[in-house]
Amino acid sequence: MADVIDIDQQVEVERTELGDGAWVDVARGWLTGADALYDHLLTNVAWQTSRLFRYDHFVEERRLSSGWRRGVPIPHEALATATRGVQNRYGVRFDSFGIIQYRDGRDGQAFHRDTDMRWLDDTIIAILSLGAQRPWLLRPRTAKFDDAPGKGATHDLAPASGDLIVMGGRCQADWEHSVPYLPARPLEPRISIQWRFARQTGRPFQGSSYRAPLHYGRG
Asked: Is residue 212 part of a domain?
């Protein structure tokens, strides 16, 4: 019998208030049958490498990516169910989602905000984790120059397969998140699916100049 992949409607959603209108929700075991979805995406998604512009040159991201948008076939019907579930809970609409694969501990993402959304004062960013459990760090922006171990992280949400993280409110304005590089650890792949929504309130983010390219890394 095939594994049933569905949202566990009874799962507890734990909210952490981060202050000044920023918050993060964690739902452990939100998706049942997560390992079956992980196996499907790992072998059936058309994974791609991509490059980011950093300072004055391009660098290859240390992870693989893919995505979906309305009007094209969805990678797995369970992701349609997951999309509806997040939309219904948070009262928003998503027209796309991203998919990221961290192949092993050498792949990761430094601390960042999703500034390409531009409107950061009231956002919803939901992240479904599949596969290997890894650290997933949050820190206030005031700690961005902290070079101590953990680089100022105050929370490690460490999502397991099937867990859902949702950052909301002013989280992208005032906080940064990271999937740290762990090259010394023998880790299996981790896949994350990210849904993003921003209300056009407050002042939009701009880079070093109005025409400066905006880049981000999803968790």
From this structure: no
**Is 218 part of a structural domain of the chain?**
no
Return the HEC string of 39-96: HHHHHHCCCECCEEEECCEEEECCCEEEEEECCCCCCCHHHHHHHHHHHHHHCCCCCE
Residue 209 lies in a domain: no
Alpha helices in the chain (DSSP H): 34-44, 77-90, 171-174
**85-to-12, 37, 167, 173, 191 alpha-carbon distances in Å:** 14, 16, 16, 25, 19
Structurally, how many domains does the chain consist of? 1
Structural domain harbouring 161:
14-198
Phi and psi at residue 132, to the nearest 5°: -65, 145
pTM score of the predicted model: 0.91
Sheet holding 13-19, edge to edge: 13-19, 22-27, 164-169, 123-131, 190-198, 96-102, 64-69
The CATH number assigned to the domain holding 28 equals: 2.60.120.590
For every one of its 219 residues, what pLDDT tens digit does the chain have, with 9 covering 90 and above?
468 999 999 999 999 999 999 999 999 999 999 999 999 999 999 999 976 655 565 667 889 999 999 999 999 999 999 999 999 999 999 999 999 999 999 999 999 999 999 999 999 999 999 999 999 999 999 998 898 889 999 999 999 999 999 999 999 999 999 999 999 999 999 999 999 999 999 989 987 543 444 444 467
**Residue 207 falls inside a structural domain:** no
